[in-house]
Amino acid sequence: MREDLKCVISERRTLPSGQVEFILDNPRLAKEAEPGQFVHIAVENGKNLLRRPISICDAADGKTRIIFEIKGEGTKWLAGRSVGDTLTLMGPLGRGFDLDIGGSAFIIGGGIGVFPLYMLAKKLKNPKIFLGFRNKDMVVMEDEFAALGKTLVATDDGSYGEKGFAIDLAEKEISDCDIIYACGPKPMLKAVKAVAERHGVRAQISMEERMGCGIGACLVCVCKTTTGNRQVCLQGPVFDAKEIIFD
């Protein structure tokens, strides 16, 4: 079982799109973190809330970057922490992306699903990156991704970039793709799986489910696969797309 780590918040900012970013100081966490993994953060507000799983955006030089959206009491409490505060967490947890597949890689991210793909993009050679957001105000990290590879942006309402979805942009160039890495809302991941199967391309997708323990003991985060129910926190969050059964 993973032991708790203490991480000091050395930097904090609120992004223009509304999410909150922390830089956490802990050499062990930063050294062990791999693209696609997450941390499970204790919420200490006296209400006995479950820990909150937050994807790792980046990790290097003793520092780990996380970005999260305020969705409920737990993340509201977390967003209220300041520079100098200490967080108690377990991590890094979960199975990340397989970087040894080789070939031409496409990265497809939707909404807050773009954050765990940044560290992945840094470790791949010249990936093509496709990012999707609801509207212009929600576009985030475009410049950072663009520094790592060709990056195209789509918005649902057409207020920025191409109108439509990131998967549609990727499918137009799918002849250049050997592997798709994706993270985002389930409808997007379902579409990624369909496109990958249609074109005979392998795909790895990061699933997000509500988690309790974060270490495979409580069965809260089960998802359906072709080999039965699997635990996202332990056997994921990254799966081969062909394994996942979407309802």
Structural write-up:
The mean pLDDT is 93. The two termini are 32 Å apart. The chain contains seven helices and 15 strands. It has 247 residues and is an alpha/beta fold. The protein has a domain at 5-93: Elongation Factor Tu (Ef-tu), domain 3. Strands 10-9-8-7-11-12-15 form a seven-stranded mixed beta sheet. Strands 1-2-5-4-3-6 form a six-stranded antiparallel β-barrel. A two-stranded antiparallel sheet has the order 13-14. It has helices at 27-32, 73-79, 118-123, 142-146, 166-172, 186-199, 232-235; strands spanning 5-14, 20-25, 38-41, 52-60, 63-68, 86-93, 105-110, 128-133, 151-155, 162-163, 179-183, 202-206, 222-225, 228-231, 238-240. Helix 6 (186-199) links the parallel strand 11 and strand 12 (202-206).
Set down the secondary structure blueprint:
Elements: E1 5-14, E2 20-25, H1 27-32, E3 38-41, E4 52-60, E5 63-68, H2 73-79, E6 86-93, E7 105-110, H3 118-123, E8 128-133, H4 142-146, E9 151-155, E10 162-163, H5 166-172, E11 179-183, H6 186-199, E12 202-206, E13 222-225, E14 228-231, H7 232-235, E15 238-240
Parallel strand pairs: 7-8, 7-11, 8-9, 9-10, 11-12
Antiparallel strand pairs: 1-2, 1-6, 2-5, 3-4, 3-6, 4-5, 12-15, 13-14
Given as residue ranges, the uncertain stretches (5+ residues, pLDDT < 50) are none
> Which percent range fits the helix content?
10-25%
Q: By CATH's scheme, which homologous superfamily of the domain at 5-93 applies?
A: Translation factors
Assembly status: single chain
The termini sit apart by 32 Å
**CATH third-level topology of the domain at 5-93:** Elongation Factor Tu (Ef-tu), domain 3
Alpha-carbon Rg, integer: 17 Å
The major pleated sheet works out as: 7 strands, mixed
Task: Please state the overall shape, judged from the principal axes of the Cα atoms.
Answer: globular
> What is the N-to-C succession of helices and strands?
EEHEEEHEEHEHEEHEHEEEHE
Q: What is the typical, i.e. mean, pLDDT? A: 93
Beta-sheet strand percentage? 25-35%
